[in-house]
Structure formats: C-alpha cells, structure tokens
Design brief:
Shape of chain B: globular
Helix content of chain A: over 70%
Largest interface: A-B, 46 and 48 residues
Structural class of chain B: mainly alpha
Largest sheet of chain A: 2 strands, antiparallel
Strand order of the largest sheet of chain A: 1-4
Structural class of chain A: mainly alpha
Distance between the termini of chain B: 23 Å
Number of helices of chain A: 16
Number of strands of chain B: 0
Oligomer: heterodimer
Radius of gyration of chain B: 22 Å
Strand content of chain B: under 5%
C-alpha cells in the first residue's frame, strides 16, 4: 500500500518514529535522574536490549515473510525451538557459525512442514502452527535424550556448551572501536559518563547499539533493510506480496501462488531458526528446554505492532528486547520502571482528562498512582514480576496498538489453485 | 453426505494418522539404535495390565477437560491456547483455598472445584475482554497470559499461599487438603468386577469427567448458548444478522472455556497430590489442544483421544527400564497430531467436493 502514501506522508511517518524514540529516551532520562539509577539507560542495558531483541525481531521478520504470502505462522515458536536445538548441537561440534547455519536450516525445515500442511493440504494455519510447536517441543526433548546421554556434558533438557564465541566489533571514534590497531576515542562513552539530562541517555542508547556488537547481531540487523528491499523493491518480492493480498488475481497474472507461499513460509522458518540459534550462540551458549520463552509469539506481536513491515517489526522487537534486558540488570533499574509507569501513566491520564475522555483518564491516573505508591513504599520488585514484565508489556502494547493496523488482505485465508473469488 | 459417512471418514482417517505416527516413530526409534518392535511389544504388554489401564484413565481425565475447554472455543472459531496458564493458576488458588477451609465432605470438594472454575474463568476472561475491547488476537493474549500465570503463581505460592516448611523440608507447597476435600478412589468399583489395579488409585474425577462430557454435549446441542455458538462459528455474518451479539459470544465462550480449564488440575489435586507443589504436572493444557483436534471437538471423539494419549503416556513408562528412551511418546503424540490435522483437512476437501457434486447434480435435474 506504499504507493497510496505521498512522499510527504512517508517522510512524516519516519519522523514520527524518530520523535517517538527521542521521547522515550527523554522519559527514561527523567526517570533515571529522579530514581537515581544510572543503569536504566546505560549502554550496557541498551546493548543487552539489542542482543535480546534480535531473536524477537528475527521471529517478527519471519512473521512478515509468512503473512505477506498470506500464511499465518503461529509455528514460529516451534521453529525458534528447532533453531535453538540444532544451533546448539551444531555449534557444540563445529563452532558458533555452523550453529547459526544449521539453526537456519532446521527452522526452514519447520517452515517447509508448515507450508506442506497449510498450502498443499489446506490445514487451518493456526492449527498447523500449534501442532508444529507441540511437535518441536517434544521432538527436541527426545533428541536431547538420545543425543546427550552418556558423558557429553548435556542431558534430557540441555546441551553441552558451545566453546567458541562469535567475534564482536565496536564503531570507531564513536564507541572506541579499533582502526588498524589504533584505539580510537570513545566519544559516546565519555558523554554517557557525564550523566547529563537526556544527552547522556541518548549517548547510552547509541553506544549500546554500537559497542561490542557481535557480528551475528550485525548480520541479523542487516536482514531488516535487506528484507524490506527484497519484499518491496524486487519483482520476486512483489509477486510474494501479491499472493498475500489477492491470490486469485496473482494467479491470473501468471504468478505461481503455491511456490510463492512455500518460499515465504520457508524463509519465515529460516528467520526464526536464525533467531533461535542466536539465543544459543549470543546468549546462553547452550540449548535449554523452554529457552525460547514465548519469543516466537512475542515476535508475532512485534510483527503486528510493526504493521506487517520489517522496520516496524524490528523496532517493536527492540522494545521487547529492552524489557527482557531489564531482567538481567541490577534491581534498582527495574524498580525505577515503576516510576516510569507513574510518569507516563500520569501524563497520558492528564492528557486524556484534558480531552475529556474520562474513563481512560481515571484508569491511567489510577494506574500511575498505584505505581507511584508501590515505588515509594518498596525497595525492589519481586523477581517473579520482573520475569513477567516482557509478557505484560506485550499485552499492554497490543491492547494499545492493534487497532490502526492493516494486515495483508488474504492473510490466513485458505487458497486452492484455480479457485474463484 | 450422511452423518454415518462422516463418522466413517473420521474414524478411518484418525486410525490412518495413528498408524502413520507409529510408523514414523518406529523409524526414529530404529535410527536412534533401538528396536521398534521390541519397544511396541513392551508397551503393549505393560499397557494392558489392569493397573496400567487405570493409570491411563487417570492421565486421560485432565486431558479430557482441557480438550473440552479448547473445543468449546473451536466451535466458534476462537482459539483458547491459554488453557495451560488457566488451569495452573486455578489449581494453585483452589488448592490454597481447599487447604485453608474445613467443610463437610461434598461441600468441601464443591468449593474447591468452584474456586478453580472461577479462577480459570477470570484468567481466560482477560483474553476475551482484550479481544472484544481492544481487538487483540486471543492466541497472542492467552499465550502471554500463560507466562503471566507462571510468574504470578510463583509469587503467590512463595509469598502468600505456602505452608511454613518443617526443618529440612525444602519443597514449596500449599497446606494439605483435609480428607473431606478429596475425591474417593474408584478402586472399590473395579474390585466389584474382579479387577485389582494394585497401587494405582483410579481417580474419582473420572466420574465427573463422564458427566462433564454429557454436559458438554447438552451445552452445545441442546441450549440456546450452544446454538448461538455453533451459528457464530459456521457463519459469523449470518449469526450477527440474526441478532447474536458477536462480542458477547466471544466473552461468554472464553469465560466458559476458562471455567472448564479450571477443572483440568482437579483430577490430580483431589485424587493424588491433595496440595499444590512446584512439581504439579504441566503441559496438560497444550496436550489438550492435540486431543481436541484428534477428537474433532466431539465429546466422544475427545474421550477416545484423551484415553489414547493417556495410554501412550502410561505405556511408554516401561521403556526406560528397558533402555529405550520413553520420550518417544512426545514424537508419537506430536506426529499423531500433525498427521491427524492433515488427514482431516484432506477428508474435508473430499467431502466438500462430493457434497457440491450432489448439489450440482440436483440443480441440473431441476433445470431439465
């Protein structure tokens, strides 16, 4: 639908994203200063957010590929699981890069299975996806028992660790990366250490995205513009999207609908497989049962929030990565989130009150007051609540965002070759 | 297409799917260095013992409830994938309530069950509310609510609902439910027929499950709600034109589905554990989805599916003692699920084609 937007509208759209990011940083900055928790916006936190957001936005990209050809892929979670297991297995034997490659292949095979069921056999998309999730979970348990018995160092629910890690890079000059052996200055790091309002927090964000970034993460991030270019700027991408919008019309123009659907769903599985493998190579270094923790579904939510577009899905995935990252950071930073909720909720509530929309206003101010009261009367958040933060965030964000979006017109509908409208 | 023809198709296609799954699992067993014939032989021999059959029924009962919870949603195209979270939070709260109160026997059990149903209904109600008010797809919201249930449940158990531990006891658990709040075992009934299940206690909840199956059938086919449910499922547009409020139906269906989901944990709670501990069985909600699909949302079909899955679950227990990984059960169940949905989809296409031929044939005759 891009063609319906004027260039100006599109420009405003991108600017809106920029303003949104700057606004979020500003609110985080105020929260950081009021609560006295530098870690809330440190480059370390944003770095973890990037690493933890990567598997999620890869799943989201996977969702984009599948739904752009009209196939709903609830099986992303299962394909992530396939990626984690095979990524860890191959990584354990041949190193992390092989782990990523085999993880992609395993995810793509999961996608192939989903395509076989939904495209060839016309199974309901959600039913097939759920079946794949259940099969992947149980199948990997069986494979673990068979593979990691004896003294491999693994067991029924986990693999032995990958010994090697993928190299990291930092941006020169900005974040202290090396140029031909010369250690360049760390400008953003210096700015971050000043703890100035807003500027240091922005520096923390930028440095977090540019310091010690694994080459695998860089590759994954590059897949976002690459996917956009592929789906929106190449003839093959156009054919794929046409199948998701109007398969009958596409077929009449000679597009091979089934092939496009297969391609989209296999690519979708490959993306999820890469995400799963990166959970292993970038993070835990082992396969552990339940490691994916619903990231496939959160990726699906990112795709919806991102309006079925690669860039949007990636941005939303980054947000969810941030909530996962907080789980690993120090306690006060998480506690400070209560203050954040109070600030944002209070401000939105007053805005709603000004617009005379009383019901949401009361709701928001009430939430804000509760959050403030809890913030002032406690020193830390129970870890169980830190654990659920990403999932609650997903629910809240979906509840706020899911109404002005447009999915591909034929998404989730069955299609038989030669069918009529 | 007559009803009988459909029934034959359903039975034949599920039988073929099960055979296919057995074959796939046999290949996987063989590849992983185990003798599949020996494995299946062992499973059969162990599985037909009286205690194994009783245990299979015990394992089937929770699956049956979770399958019914899922099936109710399916009837109107709603996918309650959150049964997992609903039953786990429900059984925790119900166990805590049951352990805290003292009542005469039937009342005590009823209060526990009612609590579980209420908690399950509230939990799934969140997902229903988010769908009708904010347009959030129930699959995503109810999956997220599963994780929230895990976190909230762990918090409640650790801080508010747990029993103070004796010295040296590290298991976190709720207080034990008094005998008045337990369901008696059905072993006496089995003994009347000369069967002795040994150390296995056949759960009293099995009787409730049968009653619930009949109730499910009545609810779907004999009530106004059931009619509106089926109407909304087969033709949402027509249902709305006929004055059925789709939002009300979504919320109502989710709430009732959650209430049924609340009963999933009751068999183990009232018949065996008598308290909630951190090792209470999980995954019953997800397996229930498989059973609902296998049984095509029909109370009898789902009972068959639950018994089959329960039996596999029990029969594979013997394999570990023979050095064969019992986890093959997950492959079996997963492949059955996937092949059964493929088989039903293929059959559905055939039936549709045959039906449309009948219709066109009739139309032609009318024209000529």
């Amino acid at each position: 639908m891009t063609s319906l937007l004027s260039p100006r509208e599109r420009l405003l759209g991108t600017h809106r994203w920029l303003w949104l990011v700057l606004g979020v940083v500003a609110v985080l900055s105020v929260t950081r200063i009021l609560a006295g928790t530098p870690d809330l916006t440190s480059s370390g936190t944003f770095g973890s957010a990037l690493r933890l957001g990567t598997p999620i936005f890869l799943a989201g990209l996977g969702g984009v590929y599948a739904e752009r050809v009209g196939i709903v892929n609830i099986g992303l979670e299962g394909m992530l699981i396939l990626g984690t297991w095979f990524g860890a297995w191959a990584g354990w034997q041949w190193g992390p890069w092989m782990g990523l490659a085999i993880g992609v292949a395993a995810g793509a095979l999961g996608g192939l299975l989903h395509a076989l069921a939904t495209v060839t056999f016309n199974v309901d998309h959600i039913v097939s996806g759920v079946a794949i999730n259940i099969l992947a979970l149980g199948g990997m348990r069986f494979l673990s028992v068979v593979t990691y018995s004896g003294d491999t160092g693994g067991g029924a629910t986990q693999s032995p660790p990958i010994s090697d890690v993928i190299g990291k890079a930092s941006a020169p000059v900005l974040s202290g990366g090396e140029i031909l052996g010369w250690e360049s200055p760390d400008l953003l790091g210096n700015l971050e250490d000043q703890r100035w309002l807003f500027l240091s927090d922005l520096a923390g964000l930028l440095r977090g995205l540019t310091v010690d970034v694994s080459w695998a993460v860089i590759l994954a991030v590059a897949l976002v513009p690459a996917s956009w270019w592929f789906l929106w700027k190449t003839p093959l991408g156009l054919r794929m999207r046409s199948v998701g919008e109007h398969p009958v019309a596409a077929e009449s123009l000679g597009v091979k609908v089934y092939q496009m659907k297969y391609l989209g769903v296999v690519l979708s599985g490959g993306m999820a497989g890469l995400g799963g493998a990166m959970l292993v190579t970038e993070f835990a270094r082992i396969y552990r049962e339940g490691q994916t923790g619903g990231r496939g579904f959160i990726g699906l939510a990112s795709m919806i929030m991102g309006n079925w577009r690669p860039g949007g899905a990636a941005a939303a995935g980054g947000l969810f990565g941030f909530t996962f990252a907080l789980e690993l950071r120090d306690e006060p930073a998480v506690h400070a989130l209560l203050l954040l909720i109070a600030l944002v909720g209070g401000a939105l509530g007053i805005w709603m009150g000004y617009r005379r929309r009383w019901a949401p206003a009361i709701w928001l101010v009430g939430t804000a007051a509760t959050a403030l009261a809890v913030f002032l009367s406690t020193d830390s958040i129970p870890r169980e609540f830190v654990f659920i933060a990403p999932y609650v965030t997903t629910l809240v964000v979906m509840a706020l965002a899911s109404q002005h979006l447009r999915m591909p017109a034929a998404d989730g509908r069955p299609y038989r070759r030669g069918q009529q409208l | 297409m007559t009803l009988n023809r459909r029934l034959v198709y359903a039975v034949v296609s599920s039988a073929l799917a099960i055979l296919f799954a057995l074959a796939v699992s046999a290949v996987i067993l063989a590849v992983s260095g185990n003798n599949p014939l020996e494995a299946y032989g062992q499973m059969f021999e162990y599985g037909v013992r009286v205690d194994s059959l009783a245990s299979a029924v015990n394992r089937a009962v929770p699956l049956y409830f979770s399958a019914m919870a899922v099936a109710l949603g399916f009837k109107m195209g709603l996918f309650n994938i959150g049964v997992e979270g609903q039953y786990r939070i429900a059984v925790l709260v119900a166990a805590a309530v049951g352990g805290a109160i003292a009542l005469p026997a039937p009342l005590h059990v009823l209060v526990i069950m009612a609590t579980a149903m209420a908690v399950g209904a509230v939990w799934s109600g969140f997902a229903g509310y988010l769908k009708i008010k904010r347009g959030v797809h129930e699959v995503i919201s109810s999956i997220m609510l599963n994780y929230v249930a895990t976190g909230v449940g762990a918090f409640l158990l650790a801080n508010w609902l747990r029993q103070e531990n004796q010295a040296g006891d590290l298991v976190i658990k709720t207080p034990e439910i008094a005998p008045s709040g337990r369901l008696p075992s059905l072993n006496r009934v089995l003994e009347l027929f000369g069967m002795d299940p040994g150390r296995v206690n056949l759960y009293g909840m099995a009787v409730v499950a049968v009653a619930a199956g009949v109730g499910f059938h009545m609810l779907i086919n004999r009530t106004r709600f059931g009619f509106e449910l089926r109407a909304s499922g087969s033709s949402p547009g027509a249902a709305e034109m006929a004055g059925i409020d789709p939002k009300r139906m979504v919320l109502l269906t989710m709430v009732i589905s959650g209430a049924i989901a609340g009963l999933v944990g009751m068999a183990h709670l009232l018949g065996f554990f008598h308290r909630y501990t951190i090792d209470f069985p999980t995954m019953l909600g997800f397996t229930g989805i498989a059973v609902a699909l296998l049984g095509r949302n029909h109370p009898v079909g789902m009972a068959g599916g639950a018994l089959l899955f329960g039996w596999f679950d029990r029969a594979t227990q013997i394999l570990d003692l023979r050095g064969i990984p019992k986890e093959i059960v997950f492959i079996l169940q997963g492949v059955i699920l996937l092949s059964v949905v493929v088989a039903y989809a293929v059959v559905e296409v055939r039936i549709r084609a045959a039906e449309s031929q009948v219709v066109t044939g009739a139309l032609r005759e009318e024209e000529s």
